[in-house]
Write a structure and sequence with these properties.
5-stranded mixed barrel; binds adenosine-5'-triphosphate; single chain; 10 strands; binds magnesium ion
């Protein structure tokens, strides 16, 4: 199991949008993290547990997701950075707790402006790791993510052994798993419409259950030992007093692996039943992109090694 670094917050950069009221902080490892605090209004410590567990599982499945860290906030940092506060009600603010919080490494590094929450449809078709959208759907069904699927996009150099890939392209990194396990409820609720990316054209016109096979088999390979390993890596402060409940969630997660194909089948049916005009997109293809994007999504877990290009 990969180690999760523990870093110290050094400098406030800016507040991020979203109901967890994350803040972008520079840390003492030289990296920038989007930090969710343990007393966030979205679901407190459980949101941090959900993010942490999801991120490590997604990495294990081969889905592109940002590096993570446990970000420690010290008394001195909070004193020196009075902007780091959570809003509560109309005019009230509350300080984050001193201690460990969840950090998702900002994929734009020191240049956050190079990262986008949305891409126009024509550009979505040029995302080199489009296949990950299938992987992340399998993942979202598995963990019962109550939130719409979210990704951020950036331009990157693509280093891959696989033929036909462009040297520079758009890469999607999947973020925001705070509402896995139905958020603060820590339960599973299966709805066919849950876990679909809002821009459905990303799935192409001929989505079939067979496209998910590599991802389903990756899920099936995650054993109880992996889940136990992740549990042990969690900062104790995030789990204290709810160890049994989290263990129960992870046990259920293990048992649910077998249901993933059936859950995906319902969602695929839902997507297929969408009116034709919902998937109207005929991709604008440059010659390079033609070689990259067949009508079928690339569902191999391509080894895109990417870094931001400025
Ligand atoms: N690792 C990252 N790299 C770049 N940007 C990020 C990263 N993580 C989060 N963001 C940005 O920060 C915003 C807030 O993050 P996130 O969506 O996880 O928070 P949230 O409060 O849970 O949102 P929501 O209200 O959608 O549940 C995102 O919309 C995205 O723009
Ligand atoms: Mg979000």
């Amino acid at each position: 199991m990969q180690r999760v670094p523990s870093v110290n917050a050094k400098r406030f950069v800016r507040k991020m949008r979203g109901s967890a009221q994350a803040h972008l902080l520079e840390c003492d490892d030289g990296s920038f993290y989007v930090v969710k605090f343990s007393n966030n209004p979205q679901g407190g410590r459980r949101v941090l547990d959900n993010e942490f567990v999801s991120s490590l599982l997604m990495k294990r499945l081969g889905i592109h997701t940002p590096e993570i860290a446990v970000v420690n906030l010290g008394r001195d940092f909070l004193k020196a950075n009075p902007e780091v506060r959570l809003s509560q009600g109309s005019n009230q603010t509350v300080m984050p707790e001193i201690g460990p919080h969840f950090g998702s490494q900002h994929v734009g590094g020191a240049v956050p402006a190079t990262v986008f929450d949305f891409l126009p449809s024509a550009m979505l078709w040029e995302v080199v790791n489009r296949g990950d959208f299938l992987g992340v759907m399998a993942f979202d069904k598995w963990v019962s993510n109550a939130d719409g699927r979210q990704a951020v996009f950036y331009r990157a150099q693509i280093n891959t052994e696989m033929p036909g890939y462009p040297r520079v392209g758009w890469v999607a990194q999947f973020i925001d798993n705070g509402l896995a396990f139905q958020g603060r409820d820590w339960t599973f609720y299966d709805s066919p419409v849950q876990g679909i990316y809002m821009r459905r054209i990303i799935y192409g016109r001929r989505l079939s259950l067979r496209d998910f096979e590599p991802w389903v088999s990756a899920v099936m390979q995650i054993g109880q030992d992996v889940l136990d390993g992740i549990f042990k890596l969690l900062p104790p402060a995030w789990v204290e007093g709810q160890e049994h409940e989290l263990q129960r969630v992870l046990n259920q997660l293990y048992d649910r692996r077998e249901r993933v194909p059936e859950l995906l089948a319902e969602t695929v049916k839902c997507i297929q039943a969408m009116p034709a005009q919902s998937v109207p997109f005929v991709p604008r293809r440059s010659p390079k992109v033609t070689r990259l994007c067949s009508d079928k999504l690339p569902h191999t877990k391509n080894s895109v090694v990417a870094r931001c290009s400025t």
